[in-house]
Amino acid sequence: MVDIDALSKQVSAKARRGGGREARRHSRARAVPSFPTLERRIPVYEIVPDEAIELIHDASCKILEEIGIDFRDDEAAGLWKAAGADVDGYRVRIDRALLMELVARVPAEFTLNARNPERTVRVGGNNAIFVPMYGAPYVRDLDNRRRYGSLQDLNNFHKLAYMTPALHSSSSIICEPMEISVPKRHLHIIHSALTFSDKPFMGIVTSRERAEDVIKMAGLVFGEDFVKDNPVLVAITNCNSPLVWDATMLDAMKVYARHNQPVILAPFALCGASTAASSVGAVAQVNAEALAGVAFTQLIRPGSPQLYGQFMVTVDMKSGAPMGGTPEAAQMMYLMGALARKYKLPWRTSGFHVGSKLNDAQAGYEANMLMHAAILSGANYIWHVAGWLEAGLVAGYSKFVTDAEQLVGWYKYAQGVSFDDFTEAMAAIREVGPQGHFLGTQHTLEHFESAFFMPTLMDFNSFEQWSAEGARDHDTRGREKARAMLAAYEAPPMDEGIAESLADFIARRERELPDSVS
Amino acid sequence: MVDIDALSKQVSAKARRGGGREARRHSRARAVPSFPTLERRIPVYEIVPDEAIELIHDASCKILEEIGIDFRDDEAAGLWKAAGADVDGYRVRIDRALLMELVARVPAEFTLNARNPERTVRVGGNNAIFVPMYGAPYVRDLDNRRRYGSLQDLNNFHKLAYMTPALHSSSSIICEPMEISVPKRHLHIIHSALTFSDKPFMGIVTSRERAEDVIKMAGLVFGEDFVKDNPVLVAITNCNSPLVWDATMLDAMKVYARHNQPVILAPFALCGASTAASSVGAVAQVNAEALAGVAFTQLIRPGSPQLYGQFMVTVDMKSGAPMGGTPEAAQMMYLMGALARKYKLPWRTSGFHVGSKLNDAQAGYEANMLMHAAILSGANYIWHVAGWLEAGLVAGYSKFVTDAEQLVGWYKYAQGVSFDDFTEAMAAIREVGPQGHFLGTQHTLEHFESAFFMPTLMDFNSFEQWSAEGARDHDTRGREKARAMLAAYEAPPMDEGIAESLADFIARRERELPDSVS
After folding, report:
1. Which one of A65, A72, A240, B227 has the largest count of C-beta atoms within 10 Å of its C-beta?
2. Which of residues 30-89 of A touch B (CB under 8 A)?
3. Residue among A4, A48, A10, A35 nearest A341 (CA)
4. In Å, how far from its chain's centre is CA B71?
5. Which of B239, B301, B252 is closest to B92 using CA atoms?
C-alpha cells in the first residue's frame, strides 16, 4: 500500500515553507511526490441486478439498429458503410453484432505515459486516475473574484496540478487563456500543461489542425515515433446528444485514434433536455451514443485504446442549468459503470463537479455525493476532480486545493479496509482493557499516522484556537493554501533542447496561423 | 413510490408565503406533509467479503469471553451472573453462545409510534428513518453567531423538524436549553419535542429519575398503558469505550427497556483514542461493546426492541477532536452494517455529522461523504442528519435546513432506479431522434418533476441572476430559509386535556425537583 500520509506531508511541508531563495535551495533536492495509479481494492457497487443492465443494453442496441445515429462526416459515413452498417446519408444504423465486434477490439487497460516516467499511469480494469477539470472560461481567483481566465491562471493551475500528489494528470484547458486569440490558444495551453507539470495531459479537439498541432508538440517532447503508438494524452470528444457525432468532433477523433491516443467517448448529457426525463432512458441513449463513438474509433485504428463513459447531470427546471450532486447523477453513474464492465471497456466519469458558484456548503454537498459514486462505480478516469465550479464555467483556486486534499481521502478509501495489523490491534485492546485509553500504546504510536486520513485544510481545532487564527471559513483557507503552494512552486526539469524546440514550434505556428477565426 | 416532489413543494410554498395572519389562515387547512418510512429499494454495499465479517465477529466474541466488559451496577452484574456469565465484581465475561442467544431475542423490526399516527414509522429490515441531531450545548443562530442554546432555540428546532418532510423524528435535545437548571431541563426538552412537533421523539438518559419522568410524560400523551408495551421514543445510551457500561447509562437503559422502549446501544468511539488506531480493531471493539449492551437489555425485558450500531469517528492528531467525512468513518460504517445484518438487528448510524464550525465547504464535503455511506450501508436509524456542526457541540439553523433539503435527495436515492416508464422514455427517444431536444415531448412534460430531484435551496440560477439576487452563499440562503420557515410555522393540534396534563405534570415536578444538582 502506498504510504499516502508520508507523501502528503512532504507536499504540505513544502507549501508551508513558502518562497524565498533559501527555502527553494533546501527543497530542490527532493522531487514533488505523486501517488502512483490508484489500484482499487474495494468492490464495485451494483445498484441494479444484471438483468436490468441487459435491458438497458438491449434498448441501446435497438436505438442504434432502428433509429440510428448521425455521423456527419463523409469519411466516417464511408467507413461505416464499408464495415457493413446500414448508411443513409449521415444516418448510420449499426446492428449489435457489428457494434459488439468493434467494441471488443478496444483494450481493457492501457498505459498512459507521462514525460516524467515516474508519473506514467495505468487506466482500465482496477486502475483509476484522478484528473483535474477542463474547459472553464472563467476563474474564481485568489481574491475570490470571478473573472475571465488568463494564461497566468492556466499556468498556475498546471503548477497546482503538478504539486498535488493525488492528481495523476495536468488536464489541459483547466481554464481558457482568454487573452490569446482562439486560433493560437491551443499552442499555449499545451505548452503550459507540458512545461509547468510533468504528468500526463489532455488534447485539444476544436479542429483537425489543432489536434495535429497537439500531436506534433507531444512528438517534440516524447519523440515523434513514440507518439505514433504510445498513449501520452487523452482527448475528449462529445456527442451532440441526442444521437449526433458532428464533423469537428470526428475530425479530432480521427487524428488522435490514428496515433493510438485514447479518446473519451462520453456524451455530455443534460438529462431532461438532451435526453428523456428518465434516468434509465437517459442511460440507454448515452450508452448508444458512447458505444457508437467507441466502435467508430476501431474503424480508424483497430485495437486503439479508448475510453467509454458519461457526463450525465440533470437540469434545473428554472434555469436550464446543469445541477451537481443529485441522486439521479449518482445512480446513472452506477448504471454506466455496470455497462462498462459488461463491455470490458475502460471508462470515464466525473467527481466533484458542482453547480455551486462558490466553494461553499453547496459545493461540498454536491461534490462528495458524486465522488462517492465515482469511486464505488469503479470508474477508471475520474475527471473534473479539481477546481470545478458553476457547472464547469469557472475554475476556482480554492475549490482546486479543497478537492486536491479530498482526493487523498478518496485514494485511501478505494484502497480498502486494511486487516494487516488486526492481530496487533487486538493485542492493544487486551493491553488497554476496560476504561483505559489507547493514545500511549505502542500500536497507536506505530499506526496512528497511517491508519487514519488526516486532512489539514479542513479545520478540526477547538473553536477557541480556530477563532484565534481568524475564524476563517473553508473557502478562505483554501485560497490561502493555493497562494502558499504557488509561492513554493518549482518547475519540474525539462531538457533544454526540448524546451527550445517547443518554443520554436509555437513561434512558427503563431506566424502561420491567423489572429482570429475567419 | 412516494411523490416526494409534490410533498416537498407544499412545504416550500408554505415557507415562501411567510408569516401574516392571512397567510396563516390560508394554510391552516392543509397539514404539514411528511414522508412515510423510507423503504429501501437499493442493495447494500458490502465492502469486505463475509469471511472478513466473520473474522471481526470472532474477535469481538473473544474480547467479551477473554477480556470481558464492565457493567458497573450491582443489579446488572447480578442479572449477568444469573444468566450464566462469568462475573467477577463488575467485570462480566460472556461466552458467545449466551451472547448470541440473547441477541437473537431482539426483533428485527419494530414500529415507532408518533402522537400523530400519520407520522408513525417502521425501523429495521429495509426500513429506515432520518432523525435530527442531539445534544448540542451551542447553537449557530440565524445571525450566524455561536452562542449557548436556549429553550427558544430548542422550540425553533422542533418546529423546523416538524416542518421538514424528510425528517421522521423530532429528536429531543437538538440543543440544550442552557438557561434551565439541569435537574428540570429534561421536562422542558420533552415538552418541546412533544408539543412543537407530532413526530416520534427521543428520551433522556442522564438519570433513572429523569428517564422515568420521560416515560410518564409519554404516558400523558399516548396513554399510560400504551407506553408500557409500545415504542413511542428511542433513547441513546453510550458505552464508555473501551469496554465500560456505567451505572447512569444502565439505570436509564433499564427504565426504557422495561417499558419496551428501544434503546440505542451504539458506542461513541473516538478511533485512535478510545479504540486502537485500526479500523477493523475499532470495529471489533465497538461491536463487542454494542452486542454486550444489546444482550443486557434482553435480560431486562426479553424481546424488547433495541438498536445496535455505532458512532465511530477518527480523531484529529493535533486537537484530539472528532473528525467527520473521513474514509475510515465511511468504511467502518459499512463493516458495522454487515455485522448488523449478520445479527439481524435494527441498527443506527449517523449521517451529516461534521467537524466543521461553519456551514461551509468543509461541512458539505464531510456531510455527504458520510451520508452516502449511511445510505449504502443499509442503516435503519440514520441520526444526526439535521443541524450538526463542530463535532456535535453546535446545532446550526442554516445547517439544519441545508441537511433537510439534502435528505429529500437521499430519500429518493434510496428508493432506487425507476424502470416504470422505460418504455415511454424509449418512445420519446424514437420521437425526438437525432439532434432534437426533449423539453417539449409529452413524456418530459409528464415525468420531469418526478424524474429528477430539484433542490431549491441550492442555487443553479445563472451567475447574473444569482448576482442580482445578492450573490448569497449557501449558508446565508440557509439562514434566510430557516427564518422564513419559522415565520410560517403553525403548531400541530394537540388535545387540550393532554396539553393541560403535561403542563400540570411539569409544574408539579418543578416544585419537587431541586434547582441545582447537589
Report:
1. B227
2. 42-43, 45-48, 52, 55, 59, 62-63, 66-70
3. A48
4. 26
5. B239
> What residue in A sits closest to B42 (Cα-Cα)?
A47
Cα–Cα distance, A367 to A351 (Å, whole number): 7
Joined grid coordinates for residue A99: 457494434
Using a CB-CB cut-off of 8 Å, the residues of chain B touching A437 are: 242, 273-274
Average pLDDT over residues A241-253: 96
What integer pLDDT is reported at residue B270 of this predicted model? 94
Give tens-digit pLDDT for B412-437.
999 999 999 999 999 999 999 998 88
Identity of the amino acid at A437:
H
Residue B2 confidence (pLDDT):
59
> Could you tell me the mean pLDDT of each successive run of 10 residues in chain B, 518 residues long?
61 48 42 92 98 98 98 98 98 98 98 97 98 98 98 98 98 98 98 98 96 98 97 96 96 97 95 94 98 98 97 86 93 98 98 97 97 98 98 98 98 96 94 91 87 93 96 98 98 97 98 89
Query: Which residue stretches of A259-345 are H helix?
Result: 279-300, 327-343
Three-class SS of residue B404? helix
Contact A359/B at CB under 8 A: yes
Q: Letter for the amino acid at B335?
A: L
pLDDT of residue A13: 53
- Beta-bridge partners for A148: A138
Tens of pLDDT, residues A138-190: 999 999 999 999 999 999 999 999 999 999 999 999 999 999 999 999 999 99
- Whether A375 has a pLDDT exceeding 60, the answer reads yes
Type of residue found at A161: A
Residue type, B41: R
Contact, B185 vs B154, CB < 8 A?
Answer: no
Q: Are B351 and B374 in contact (CB under 8 A)?
A: yes
CA distance A350 to A420: 32
Q: What interhelical angle do A151-163 and A4-17 show, nearest 10?
A: 140
**Cβ(A483)–Cβ(A34) under 8 Å?**
no
Residues near B506 by beta carbon (within 8 Å), at least 6 away in sequence? B187, B188, B191
Q: Report the length, in residues, of chain B.
A: 518
Q: Does A104 contact B at CB distance below 8 Å? A: no
Task: Say if residues A233 and A210 touch (Cβ distance below 8 Å).
Answer: no
Cell of B193: 419535542
pLDDT value, residue B8: 59
Residue B350, class by beta-carbon neighbours within 10 Å (0-12 exposed, 13-18 middle, 19+ buried)?
Answer: buried
Tell me which residue has cell 410554498: B13
**Contact call for B460 and A316, based on CB within 8 A:** yes
Interface of A with B in 370-399 (CB under 8 A): 371-373, 376, 390-391, 393, 398-399
Interface predicted TM-score (ipTM) of this complex, two decimals:
0.95
Q: Are B447 and B439 in contact (CB under 8 A)?
A: no
